[in-house]
Amino acid sequence: MNSANPEPNDDQHPPRIPIPRTSIEDTGLPLPTQTPTSPPPPPLILEHRVLKALLGAWALAASSPEETAAVEDHLGDCGACADEALRLREAVGLLHPPETLDLDPALRTRVLQACLTRRPPRIPVPSWATPYDAETARLDALLQDIGDAEWHAPVRLRWFDGKEPTSRRTTVAGVIAHLLTVDGLVAVTLGLEDPLETRTDTPTPAARTEAFWRAAHFPPTRSVRGPWREQSHNLVRTVAFAGGGSGRLPVPYGDFELPLRDSMLDRAFETWVHAGDIADAVDYPYEPPSPRHLHAMIDLGARMLPSALAARRQAGLAAPGETPHLVPAGTPGRSLRLEIEGLGGGEWLIPLDSPGALASPDREVAHVALDGVEFCQLAAGHVSPEEAAAGQSGDREAIRDVLFAAASLSRM
Questions:
Q1: Source organism's superkingdom (predicted)?
Q2: Mean pLDDT across the stretch 155-179?
Q3: Are 90 and 82 in contact (CB under 8 A)?
Q4: Was domain 291-408 assigned CATH 3.30.530?
Q5: How far is CA 27 from the centre of its chain?
Q6: CB of 189 closer than 8 Å to CB of 250
Q7: What is the location of CATH 3.30.1050 in the chain?
Q8: Alpha-carbon distance 180 to 366, whole Å?
């Protein structure tokens, strides 16, 4: 403190720091009477439809205190609204993630699957074409998510050539070119444009694919997605307008043919299998088809087993059946019970002696049990007959022949 400026006289100036206020409790005076508070408002009584409509605002914490109390009281009594409230709260959590904006990679697949199974199409698609519609849409969603460089990721196409596993190396773009070319067999049957400009002497799926790859000046790139996508849409739209009766049209595969209804299932199956090949190559999560569609694919495979078994027997790759004149067409013969467990499950009786023989439970000589997805992987040539985890009982030779026949259904 500067001595030239002495402290002011306390008698002339108020203190610089005010003294503490005296509390009324310390004065001995009576306390003031308190104004009585108003009673709390009565709880809101709202109808169920109003409370359900408030769930969105409640999940966003945008409802009034009275509405919040009414909603929360209601959630304790209504299970349906409680489930909906939980889903809404989880959705709000996605809008405000604590760390990252990246969604669960499987979310797109789940949402797409829900849309495909719940949203009715404007133009009804025949039931035998809906698996193809669903699988091409799922594959298209996968292709939408991958980057430019991933279109050149290596992919190995695998199948069983009748005696042993075989494979062919290509890329993601090459797989889509393969699907485009083989789907072209169905397109030609329906009067649509054939994507293969170069004709082949043997119009099998493998020959058409090799011809398409050879005709390209450069390896396929992501540009192949556009033609494949457009052709897929045209196929679904054409069969939708043509109606269910078109399902009997024969579709030639070079060395065999299928009716259109089975051919569309075959194309759905191959689309799913090769989508899985692509997903493995780019490390993308991919789920099996819906159980209903998977069941239809398994049913097609089971129905094709007798012909595949007969072809292997003719080539000397399977044990001979009973004497043909003893098992004429339409006559009950030896049978194998194929039991499929899990997704798409069911049971099928497979005639063993000839494609025309009737499967008979009275003449069942063997029983095989397989998981649904594993049966499809066997039929796709992705699992060898020796490695298939099958529950087996009965005639071992018949079981072996049927498992090898299932693998022989595969092709490039």
A1: Bacteria
A2: 94
A3: no
A4: no
A5: 80
A6: yes
A7: 291-408
A8: 40
